[in-house]
Amino acid sequence: MPVQILPASSLRSVIRLPAGRALFLAPNYLICVVLWPIGRAIFGIVSNFLPVLREGVLPGRVEQGANDRQAVDPGASNSPSFMFRQASRPMPASHAEDPVHQARSPPSDPDAELAFDRFIAEIRACTLCAPDLPLGPRPVLRGRPSARLLIISQAPGTRVHETGLSFNDRSGDRLRAWLALDRETFYDESRIAIAPMGFCYPGRDGKGGDLPPRRECAPLWHAQLLAFFPAVELTLLVGSYAISYYVPGARAGSMTQVIARWREFLPEIFVVPHPSWRTTSWLRDNAWFEAEALPELRARVAVAINPPPRSAPCRRR
Questions:
Q1: 20 to 30 A Cα–Cα from 282, which one of 108, 145, 205, 231?
Q2: 78-113: per-residue pLDDT in tens?
Q3: How confident is the model at residue 250 (pLDDT cuts 50, 70, 90)?
Q4: CATH architecture observed for domain 78-305
Q5: What are the structural domain ranges in the chain?
């Protein structure tokens, strides 16, 4: 029997019937069912690659260039020198939700400034050691993300606790003399940041001196705090506690032996003794510190906080 081809009008009439409509739409539904998971898989792959492509980096590769990110040795992440270097490296925009990563963007970034303010407020609200602090918690620290000199010291004394101002005592007078800085420059937070190993006054020991900084403080806050200072050119480690924490192998010798090796830690780190009254006799016995180390320290601090202006590019003729 010959096949009869229905006209278009007849075909539309057949499709309107329930059985004919089902036969006509069934193949379309089957195609949609098959293509839907394939399309979702393709979309997921493409969406994962879009942020990477925007940054110009492919998975499994390391960018090349002076300012590019480097491959990270997992074993080196606990090294203080590693933290100093990492704090100055910019992170991709895809990490902007993380306040630590926000802080690595340029200091003029309003979002980074806001994240920094929130983090500082979190530190100043800390009450972790409150039961063990004789004068109660009052975390003292200074600095803005634009700071170029970072001073890591010991812990606040009673006068600093009362005033809330870092190095607002005789130790601060001596430290400012070592750095050849007046008070106005020293307390310019846009250029100098100060972060003690313990943010709160720890109390006095049986001999009348101050107790060591609380051990909970630096491991809890420092790594995150350093990440908020991407412009730091020089880190000054003041006193045995800061040096022992941030200089690998410092505990193998005396503080005098470590400070005598001050040249080995440059250009990122400069080590000095704590400028308390106890250091007076040490300075007499180690005259080389004022004769050799302090001139170099002053020169490097001056360069760090007063970067030379960039010269204007010459016009092409």
A1: 205
A2: 455 545 555 444 333 333 333 333 333 444 688 999
A3: confident
A4: 3-Layer(aba) Sandwich (3.40)
A5: 78-305
Q: Which of 61-70, 152-161, 196-205, 240-249 has the lowest mean pLDDT?
A: 61-70
Closest CA to 210 of 198, 195, 225, 192: 198
Structure token digits, residue 216? 């909970």
Q: What is the 3 state secondary structure string of the chain?
A: CCCCCCCHHHHHHHHHCHHHHHHHHHHHHHHHHHHHHHHHHHHHHHHHHHHHHHHCCCCCCCCCCCCCCCCCCHHHCCCHHHHHHHCCCCCCHHHCCCHHHHHCCCCCCHHHHHHHHHHHHHHHCCCCCHHHCCCCCCCCCECCCCCCEEEEECCCCHHHHHHCCCCCCHHHHHHHHHHCCCHHHHCCCCCEEEEECCCCCCCECCCCCECCCCCCHHHHHHHHHHCCCCCCCEEEEECHHHHHHHCCCHHHCCHHHHHHCHHHHCCCEEEECCCCCCHHHHHHHCCHHHHHHHHHHHHHHHHHHCCCCCCCCCCCC
Torsion region of 272: left, alpha or beta (phi above 0 gives left; psi -120 to 50 gives alpha): beta
Asked if 271 and 259 count as a contact pair (C-beta separation under 8 A), the reply is yes
How confident is the prediction for the chain on average, in pLDDT? 77
Q: Tokens 């070592």 belong to which residue?
A: 178
d(CA 156, CA 246): 19
- Worst-scoring range by mean pLDDT, 65-74, 124-133, 234-243? 65-74
